[in-house]
Amino acid sequence: MTASTSTAAAAGGTRGRPEPRTPSAEPPARAPRRRARRIGLALVAAALALPLATAAHQARSAPYGDRLTAHAPAARPDPALRIRGGAVEAYDGAGGRRHWTHTRAGRRPLAVRPAPGHAFALWSDGLVTDTARTTGRTVHWHRAVPGLSRWLAAGGPGRAAGVLQALDPAARMLAVVTPQRIAAYRTRDGDLRWVLPAEPGCAFDARRTARTGGALLVAQPCGAGAPWTAELVAVDDLGRIVPDRTPLRNAPPGDNARTRKVVAGDR
């Protein structure tokens, strides 16, 4: 009786307690799936974001607001140049077909100076640019001339005439003539090589220039009573032409030539 009762109680106790559960293998199986899903979503998000990032990169405005537009390729090097509307335009001098145009946002070209391999332009904000003349694919350099924009804005449309002057037949040096000074830039890289200030009480006149024997003659009016010799200045790629001057060595670095920048000429 006691044994039976004890056995039954033991059996009843066993039935009343919940049986221990075997740990399920399901969670470990779901965990890798969740990680894979997260990785997949991250890859999809990156793929969707890539075109947006690329578009943002391509939409960045070019330095100085330049916009170069290619049209028909030039059949020969150094096509003709002109200003049309708000653009510098390279075109076929025979048929008039456009090759490329160069515009700048909010600015307009006032003068253009062609040279072998170069398309120099003067803009309304006083900036001087050098564009690859044959292809129009790049602007080699930009140079801002102090005070030039105000002087251009104060005059009429013809004020920019004569401001850009090549200083040698190959146009290795470009002069920018303003009333206060003549500044010469090496065309290969836009490096400023020399500056010639006007005499006190005088001003250079870019519209009154002449060439003789490899020299550029620039008028420098000084008012009543000034001798005519003081009102005419001769310059070339080395600076002001005066007796016994020291050559400026305007060759680029690496050409086995000493280079230095100076205020040009003995006064």
Automatic annotation (TrEMBL):
Region annotation Disordered: where it falls in the sequence: 1-34, 61-80, 244-267
Ranges annotated as biased composition (Low complexity): 1-12
InterPro entries given in the database record: Quinoprotein_ADH-like_sf
Transmembrane regions: none
Name recorded for this polypeptide: PQQ-binding-like beta-propeller repeat protein
Naturally occurring in which organism (per UniProt): Streptomyces albidochromogenes
